[in-house]
Known about the structure:
- The complex is a heterodimer of chains A (188) and B (105).
- Chain A has 188 residues and is an alpha+beta fold.
- Chain A is 22% helix and 19% strand.
- Chain A has three helices and eleven strands.
- In chain A, strands 2-4-3 form a three-stranded mixed β-sheet.
- The longest helix of chain A has 21 residues, at 66-86.
- The radius of gyration of chain A is 18 Å and the shape is globular.
- Helices cover 29% and strands 28% of the residues of chain B.
- Chain B contains three helices and five strands.
- Chain B has helices spanning 50-60, 73-82, 96-104, and strands spanning 2-7, 25-30, 35-40, 63-68, 85-89.
- A five-stranded mixed β-sheet of chain B has the order 3-2-1-4-5, sandwiched between helices.
- The two termini of chain B are 15 Å apart.
- In chain B, 40% of the residues are buried.
- The A-B interface holds A 12-13, 16, 47, 51, 53, 61, 100-101, 109-117, 126-129 and B 65, 67, 70-73, 76-77, 79-80, 82-91, 99, 102-103, 105.
- Bound molecules: zinc ion (2 copies).
- Residues 155, 157-158, 160, 175, 177-178 of chain A line the site of one zinc ion.
Amino acid sequence: MSPRRKRMRRMMNPPVVKGFKPYGQQYDLKKSEPVIILFEEYESVKLCDYEMLNHISACEIMGVSRPTFTRIYASARQKIATALAEGRQISIEGGRVAFDKDWYLCQDCKCYFNNPDMDMEIRKCPLCKSENFKFIGQSTVKETSPDTDEELCVCPLCGYSIKHMQGKPCKDNVCPECKVPLKRNNLL
Amino acid sequence: MKIAITSNGKELNSNVDPRFGRCSYFVIYDTESKSHEFFENPNKNAENGAGPASVQFVADKGVSKIVSGEFGMKIKSLLDSLKIQMIVIKDPVKTIQDIIDMLNK
Ligand SMILES: [Zn+2]
Ligand SMILES: [Zn+2]
């Protein structure tokens, strides 16, 4: 059981909302299922069609190969088109993506902020000093990829992972590169 | 501690500029002396490389935090390596004075 490297797709900005709801329906659409857009799909569209980057730069930023990117991007557009055409809700979730660093959302002043120094614990909002903030960087990102059902201890920064040992807390393992405690993959 | 805030004008009632690299002005606020200074962003109209040049500009002023609306891709890793904290303001739009008041709370 040797440690293995697995690259997590990186996402630089957390989505600003959890999803979108249609309005002004001609008839009751409540029964229709929401379209689930994965974080990585959201990110691919944002990079290409909002930030207007070319696909090569977008692959680099997301840390995926060109064919993988093409697949993610095509899937994203197909889903968005489905939501538009069928008047369905969009829910942004899941995906094998790690935020680049710890990100937090202040519930009071609604600002997002990161933790640039992993050695320091964030105690309050750097702007309004509220203690009412939540961790969004990794806790909202779930591992939904079917090929990784196994439990892993994962580095929240670089995605380095080792197999989780029953009864041994993930945080007892430290990433050899980033020197931060590992976390369970399903909590990422 | 010094904090950079991106501004779309050079008055305290100017709004926070949502762009980092190509913002109109940077306000450097010093939380100890409670003083502020406006600097025109020299990279405002740069064809490319505005982001990294702006990081350099504010890093040279010795800031440890930046308040802006959005940080581009490359900016984030640069700021991470400099250990400069990013504070992202989405809505509602805030003025420079609002931000300074919050920082002084
Ligand atoms: Zn706050
Ligand atoms: Zn690591």
